[in-house]
Amino acid sequence: MEKKQKNKVLVVDDEPTMIDLVRYALTRNGYEVVTAQTGQAAIEAFEEDFSAVLIDLRLPDTNGLALAEKLRQISKDTQMVMISAHGEIRDAVQAIRQGALNYITKPFHLDDLVNQINQAVSLTATLRSANQLRQSVTSSRPIAGFLGISPQIKALLRQVDRLATLPSTILITGESGTGKSLLARTIHYASQRSKGPFISVSCPSLPSELIESEMFGHERGAFTGAQQRRIGRVEMAEGGSLFLDEVGDLPLNLQPKLLTFLQDRTFFRLGGTQQVQADVRVIAATNVDLEDRVRSREFRQDLYFRLNVIPLRLPPLRERPEDILFLAERYLARLAGDHPPKALTPETSAILKAYPWPGNVRELENVLERASAFASEDFLQPDDLPLDLQQRTIQAASPASATSTAGFGGIPLEELERRAIVETLRQCDDNKAAAARILGIAEKSIYNKMLRHGLRNSQSPDPSAALTGSDFDPSGV
Fold first, then answer.
1. What is the pLDDT of residues 243-266, one digit of tens each?
2. Closest CA to 220 of 272, 273, 266
């Protein structure tokens, strides 16, 4: 197994004791640490793949602010955290204005330092991911991040093309796994804010006691353990877009503050008294019916109206079957990398098209990744797909078979196969080719399976009479 590469952090400080302490704390938390005691040494050591830089404001040969600016010219995405003394707060604030993520004041707790670096590394990764996506969006097709050939998706992309340049708040609705996050990114990179950050907030994943601090930041002393001021996701998104994923799960106690921010784009950090203004476009997404949440008093009606300025519905995959094979082929190409992608046999394609995909595009990608990992040939065969997917495809293609296959626990697989063949043939009026396509097997295989199970053709009382000649292959499965 390939060893996961560690995030690299550059520490610039002229005090050997300080360097040793910081190196100990960061190495203990899984980081690879490179150190420098002068600005010149830092420039020589710095590379684009560094995930964060920690810089002392006072260095023997330069000012920390000047060094940060030079390093930013090498890699604009790598986040900088400044170390200041108590008398240098004004300089530290200036560093923030010039683009530093944050500052930490001596003396500090090592845990606070690690938290600052964690935040910087996370934002660096977000920005780099955003830049990679931006590069994939060409000027000839500004909305190429989100793809589809179905009429529904083409109409949706036309809407995105028109509204991307508007500053309005957008609410994307759709089932889990349909690609709401990718659509939000596509909107961002097609807009005039494409050069700004795209900051994503997963509302259900944030602990309720920390979500306000994560969203809006906090001041020093706002709560136990808040040793330094910290900016939140809203401030991180300055000049760009803030994506609120699954906004329907936002706690009620935070909804008024989000409402205030949406109204005038201002907020207060937790524990703060100074109003902060942010130039941010909000894109929200949900897989629940917010109107139902409003009726059940789980979601504020005024907040719903503020979010639902421009609604976009992302249809589930089962409503746009034209996209299934289109997306499958492109995902297989991504999985293959520099190698030739695996192709889909007609039988496999039939199964993929017939399956209802309750998990939508995310489930399709997971199935193809698993199938590609276990496939022994250049083609994905039906047997490479999960067994439950094949069985559910049979049920979806033959609704009447749901009764006959219900409660099949404990039934031998041979009997399940026999029942599947019988029911599928009945639905296809004994058309062997059609039944084979639905079952995802070769046409000659269905004759062999019928013979093995002693099944008769409706036109012939003797199975051996119906299964002789060029169609019969005694070695078939």
1. 999 999 988 888 999 999 999 999
2. 272
